Amino acid sequence: MAEPELQRRTRRMGLVLLLVLLLLAGRMWQLQIVHGEHYAALADGNRMRRLSISAPRGAIRDREGRVLADNRLAFTVSIVPGGLVEDREAVVERLGRILGRSPEEIEATLQGNQRAYPYEPLRVARDVPPEVAVAVEEQRMDLPGVMVEQEPIRRYPAGNIASHVLGYLQLASPEDLASYDGYRTSDLVGRIGVERAYEGYLRGQRGFQQVEVNALSRPIRVLGTVPPAPGNDLVLTLDLELQRAATEAVAEQLERLKQEAGRQGPPGGGAVVVLDVKTGGVLALVSYPEYDPNKFLTGDRGAYFAELEKDPLSPLFNRAIQGAYAPGSSFKPITLLAALERRVTTADEVYVATGVVEIGGRVFRDWTITRGLPPAGPVNAVTAMERSVNDYFYVMGSRAGVQAIAATARALGLGGSAGLDIWPQDAAGLVPDPAWKRASQGEIWYPGDTANLSIGQGFLQVTPLQLAVMYMGLANRGTVYEPYLVQAIVSPTGETLYRREPRLLSYLEASPSSWNAVHQGLVAVTSGERGTARSAFARFPVKVAGKTGSAQVAPGRETHAWFAAYAPADDPEVALAVLLEYGGGGGAAAAPVACRVLAAYFGFDGNVCP
Considering the domain boundaries, does residue 421 fall inside one? Predict the structure, then answer.
């Protein structure tokens, strides 16, 4: 009886073993055959990494080839999210102590869109000092999933100079991720300036490296590489040395104005725009104060941004293209052209300026009267421009009418965007007329509004860029070119992909006699016996045609100081506009800055300017 029982037990055990073997075989078949590719991919995911290689942005150079922006190699600390499989909090906290950042900051970076790429490095700290990179490497056993890479970092060798032209880089925002294909949350994107306007050209194509990693997710062997493609280079119309000279001239003049006794409050910021009158190319574009775009690439960029936003002078605000101001007397050439072309006066008509004019039931006083000075007396078109006689322009503007003045202003580039290739777009300013006032304020246009418009006051608003464009049109006797900054785009192989040609923005047709009268009047401003800018250009070797402007702003503050010009007067090459917020008189404050800028352009030393 014992033998059959033993056999039964043996058979049962055999069946159990057979069943176990069948289950194991089935499981192996499922793992290797049915899900083999899936688990092979997971194994490769643990062993293999496809590392993204950042592409260098294209360089930005000035017209002479001088570097305004390029790249340098720097250490970057990255995390492979898929490598943080155990003790994540401890790793993040330990890394935060090395980097001087809170664990929350690091976690916020890890929670971005890169979660879709668990085995690609996510850059958490760019441009770290060498000692930080060494510290990370020394603690690599305690930092699984953390690695140190080298990547190109943007560099702006001139610092603050031309910062409003160039712009700066910041981490890609959700809007950027939606606008640009293939961008990640750790990518740097142009935020303003030409960096933003030409983002698609400057940004290259990232490369990839297939590497084998160890248990700490650190590369141990490179299996293959697809190198990145660098971005295209930009060649600007800007002249770096002229830009530097203009920046220094504005900064030093504003500092002098701060020290003046008896001022009604401190000056504000300033702007300078210099244009090539034959093409529209921007040779200098200064908004002061400026900022350092390099500091937006450091770990304390948030603090730097907050510091700039708190500055009462708003360094991030581009006054040259976005600041809209009343131009004051620098607008008077428009009024004179309108009056001459409407034939409501002639260049030789003698007008006796008494300093007081009644228009539409309102009394308007010349600036000489308000300062306790005698009126100008008999003047014609040239001497009225030379001495900036307000009551002459009140009368001539009223004769010409608002529509003629507005049409002339728009034909010379005012009242609309100039189309500069920069981001954000330059402001449109405002050339007012009766239709605008009725639509915006629900009021009729009064004769006094025309009087104010005639001397560049009232509702009229222009940017420094627009005023420079207007004086380009005066220099060219009606031909206005669209201003631009990028004259060429060059591929990494040296091929010119794009070259800008001059484009007509607008044109004002006027008689030679009208142009001659305006030209003579503007020359008299800088060289006439009683020219309002005579003192600024008394020793200047080149004849300059220009106009001062002092625009009233608010009671208890100095006027905005303007000076706009073109030179040489007989064969113009450049036009410029200078603005000093709350600077005071245009002749005393802005004209000396223009003199220094023109001296730098023509290669004269500082002795030719006050």
Answer: yes
State the first-to-last Cα distance of the chain, in angstroms, to the nearest integer: 130
CB atoms within 10 A of CB 14: 10
Among 248, 263, 278, identify where a domain stops.
263
* 445 or 45: which leads in pLDDT: 445
Element holding 550 (H helix, E strand): strand 545-551
- Helix, strand, coil tally for the chain in percent (to 5): 40, 20, 35
Do 332 and 241 share a structural domain?
A: no
DSSP 121: -
- Tens of pLDDT, residue by residue over 26-79, are 667 665 665 555 545 444 555 666 677 889 999 999 999 999 999 999 999 988
CATH number at residue 362: 3.40.710.10
User: CATH number, domain at 246?
Assistant: 3.90.1310.10
Closest CA to 465 of 240, 271, 198, 254: 271
Supply 85's token pair: 């499989």
Among the listed residues 548, 531, 526, 528, the one whose alpha carbon sits nearest the alpha carbon of residue 608: 526
Task: Annotate 58-70 with b (16+ C-beta within 10 A) or e (fewer).
Answer: bbbbbbeeeebbb
Dump the DSSP string for 553-607: -STTSPPEEEEEEEESSSS--EEEEEEETT---IIIIIHHHHHHHHHHHHT--GG
For 254-273, what is each residue's pLDDT tens digit?
A: 999 999 999 999 999 999 99
Shared domain check, 524 and 384:
yes
* DSSP letters for 478-526: TEEEPPBSEEEEE-TTS-EEEE----EEEE----HHHHHHHHHHHHHHH
Residues 476-505 have a mean pLDDT of: 98
221 and 337 in a common domain: no
User: What's the pLDDT score for residue 79?
Assistant: 85
In a domain, 372, yes or no: yes
- Same domain, yes or no: 401 and 479: yes
- For 557-570, how does the pLDDT look when each residue is reduced to its tens digit (9 = 90+)? 999 999 999 999 99
Pair (416, 529) in one structural domain:
yes
Range of the domain at 563: 323-568
Asked if residue 355 lies in contact with residue 491, where contact means CB atoms within 8 angstroms, the answer is no
d(C-alpha 292, C-alpha 164), whole Å = 10
Q: Say if residue 521 is in the same domain as residue 437.
A: yes
pLDDT at 1: 46
228 shares a domain with 356:
no
Average pLDDT over residues 85-109: 85
Q: Say which residue the tokens 């308007």 belong to.
A: 364
Look at the block and give the residue holding tokens 């073109």: 566
DSSP 373-430: PPP-EEE-HHHHHHHT-HHHHHHHHHHH-HHHHHHHHHHTT-SS----SSSSPPP--B
In a domain, 22, yes or no: no
What's the whole-number mean pLDDT along residues 240-258?
Answer: 98
Whether 358 is covered by a domain: the verdict is yes
Count: domains in the chain: 2
Residues of the chain with pLDDT > 90: what percent? 72
